[in-house]
Fold this protein.
Amino acid sequence: MELEKFRYDNRIVRMFMMATVLWGVVGFIVGLLIALQIPFPGLNFGTPFTSFGRLRPLHTNAVIFAFVGNAMFLGYYYMIQRLLKTRNYSDLLGKIHFWGWQLIIVCAAVTLVLGFTTAKEYAELEWPIDILITAIWVVWGINMIGTLLIRREKHLYVGIWFFIATLVTVAVLHITNSMEMPAGFLKSYSIYAGVQDALVQWWYGHNAVAFFLTTPYLGLMYYYMPKAANRPVYSYKLSIIHFWSLIFLYIWAGPHHLLYSATPDWAQSLGTVFSIMLIAPSWGGMLNGLLTLRGAWDRVREDPVLKFFVIAVTAYGMATFEGPMLSIKSVNAIAHFTDWIIAHVHIGALGWNGFMAFGILYWLVPRLYGTQLWSKLANWHFWIGTLAILFYAVPMYWSGITQGLMWKQFTPDGILQYPNFLETVLQIMPLHKLRAVGGALYLTGAVMMVFNLYRTAKAGRFIPEEEAEAPSLKSQMVADEKSYWGHRWLESRPIQFTVLSAVAILIGSIIGNVPMFVVKSNIPTIASVKPYTPLELAGRDLYQREGCFNCHSQMIRPFRSETERYGEYAKAGEYVYDHPFLWGSKRTGPDLLREGGKYPNAWHFRHMDDPLSMSPGSIMPRYPWLITDQLRASTVKSRIGAMRSIGVPYPDGYEEKAVADLKDQAEKITVDLAMAGIRTTPDREIIALIAYLQRLGTDIKAK
Amino acid sequence: MFKNLLDFSAWNGWASLSTVFFFVLFTGLSIGVFFLKKSHTQRMSLLPLDDGAATAPKNGE
């Protein structure tokens, strides 16, 4: 067979490498800041741009899409060329992909800080950015499929399958979950409401974990573990079963984020059953990774790259065991809404994704620069990083379990032992300080890595292209003209492979979501539930803008401990006009579903200005700008129109009356505040927010 | 005849059907994988170790 000569492109790999390192450090710094904001609320600095509710999504987006995302592309571009023995299909598409992705990240950072958000976790970015993401994803897709088609290796290695599944599934998830009705530039409403929105969102949210944080990294594991250990993967056969069962099962498990919520029982059971089944493929993959090191454990002691990989894969195993446990209703009842979940995701993020990325960087950078790693500092990074994970996770588990139990504790007389929510918050503050130490250690390790990689690059010379040679695909086809069936056949058919993975993930997606849209009985309506008034809607928009849902849930579960504390449990029919749903996933503050009527308007006014004045010891950030800033009442017209177009029954032409109605209602609240001695004008933002808070949960509450 | 298929109210049945479907596929896949030729799986698992690079620096070792 004649050998063809070609060149691998390392430039694109280097670009993503630099972006990974940069955004990683940024993401960790923001994470550390928000970790500190909880025990030290002064660090919210009293400005809108630095307050917790806006920075928390900045942190999650930065680490998921900027750090983990860039690292996955970095690993991908190096790996795919070598596994397929070809250069990337197009250098230009690669560059567009790179710069487009960085543009998305910058847009995200700017808009989130300015308060533009869809309020859907990990999908917060507003519609113009959503469109940009779709376009850039397609660019990557064309480049990937193109590369598959010009390959010089007939069979696709398992690492590539995982990227194919990532490409297809993230596209489906992103497009479906981002369906929103624009109500202006950088403002939109989810076209789904309430329970439907929740199911679509958590089908997305769960599978963002699956297909953005897991499958691409498994793909990388299957390439870089064997590379670094210089031995083949433990079992190729296992990897086939691992791949197909993982992608098939994962997509069903979303509703485990909604256990005991107002979603139908069948959906919750589905989530639990499939989550538990997921242990099998997850652990199959973990074992396949770890056993690849069989006979090479002595090298693990010396090689920091392998060390990082071992902890990464172990963390993956822990997180994927814990996930199914958390899907069991009785465990979930305690863990949900608490720091336990924060611990769980950080085992995945810091351990699995972070350590995989670090390992790959330490392995790759010396190769890109034709030199050795500059310093043994990498070993220090490893130990500090591992310590960091412990310092992070242990306090968060402790905190989560403590608070979860305190919420549920009754006295022998049958009343809540800790009726004041704040008491349960103050109890766990020392643990939050410890976790910040963990975060600081993790950041320290990362900074050491940056320095080490910088010195490594300085010591060597960048190799922009690498010569390579391989027989052409045609000549391989001729030499191997026997026809095969089964998986071997599939491995040499990229298009068929892509289609089949799409089918695998669509089955669960359809069965898990479609009934919510076609079966009316899934969402019983309640006659007394009415659309929000224009002022309440404006207040709801502010609630989203400030990210209150990052600390407050609006979902009372049907436990006596919750109905005693918050009132009647949540009904699906209460949320039918909630575009988007705002159930939240974490209770740093108390649930607000039945907040309406609980306190006078003046209480809220003072509390928002300075929570400490109403709740001594409170850790909630201050929102003084809501009191000084003017509400832009004119936007309410387009917003009412957008809401009507997605099914909220505002009468035709109501836009014209909306502003007047808004002013009327604001006037009443202002007068009421004046009676309590608070002087303000009806056109302030705080008035709208109070209107919203006072409306919450009153539709079915017996006054 | 197709009415039953389009009636979504018994959706739990669909979920169990999918579970059964999964196990059937899974079993089929496992059998197929069991019979894969060793020469093929061996060659495949060696792919990452051969990157065809003529100038790839051998370092880190």
Observations:
- The first strand of chain A starts at residue 3 and ends at 9.
